[in-house]
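Weekly sync, protein design subgroup
Attendees: M.S., D.O., the rotation student, P.L. (late)

Item 1: inverse folding check
M.S. brought a backbone from last month's batch and wanted to see whether the design step gives back something sensible before we order anything. D.O. pointed out we never logged the input encoding, so this time it goes straight into the notes. Structure tokens as presented (166 positions):
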């Protein structure tokens, strides 16, 4: 229900990502009512350098888990915007943790943007990330960007609240 509300507010596809068995995957998504939707493959590993959800989840892991994961991954360049340098990626992870959200700025596909916020469990551990995906132009407009961010933070807070009950 939270992701359905997020999709309705933003007119973007909402996804929920987790870090499971050493991989980032989407386990749920809600398509918008827009004429065109961005469909992600569920349960297919996400690349850390092309996924807003993967970035914000890893950014909220303990440093030793970050280092272990990053030491075992190869960065593939999908577009001219994809981060393919490990030092740049580490800086982006720190930036993501500081601002509270991860971004995909045409790193997976030209013309597509994504923003994701962390979700925490009852022990304060990052349990996953909720994100939205849409046209990059929607992220370039400052007011619309801030609106998406507010909606996303609200959804992440609601899911975190629900998880804290367990």
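Designed sequence read out in the meeting:
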């Amino acid at each position: 229900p939270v992701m359905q509300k997020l999709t309705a507010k933003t007119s973007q596809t909402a996804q929920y990502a987790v870090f499971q068995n050493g991989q980032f995957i989407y386990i749920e998504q809600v398509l918008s009512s827009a004429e065109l939707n961005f469909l992600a493959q569920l349960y297919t590993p996400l690349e850390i350098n092309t996924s807003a959800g993967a970035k914000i989840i890893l950014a909220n892991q303990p440093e030793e888990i970050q280092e272990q994961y990053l030491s075992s991954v190869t960065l593939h360049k999908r577009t001219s915007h994809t981060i393919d340098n490990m030092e740049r990626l580490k800086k982006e992870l720190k930036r993501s943790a500081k601002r509270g959200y991860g971004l995909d700025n045409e790193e997976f596909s030209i013309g597509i943007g994504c923003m994701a916020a962390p979700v925490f469990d009852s022990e304060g551990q990052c349990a996953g990330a909720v994100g939205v995906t849409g046209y990059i132009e929607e992220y370039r407009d400052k007011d619309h960007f801030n609106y998406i961010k507010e909606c996303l933070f609200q959804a992440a807070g609601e899911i975190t609240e629900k998880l804290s009950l367990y």
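Discussion: The helical segments are 2-10, 52-59, 63-71, 86-99, 137-140, 142-163. The chain has a mean pLDDT of 95.
Action: P.L. to compare against the previous round before Friday.
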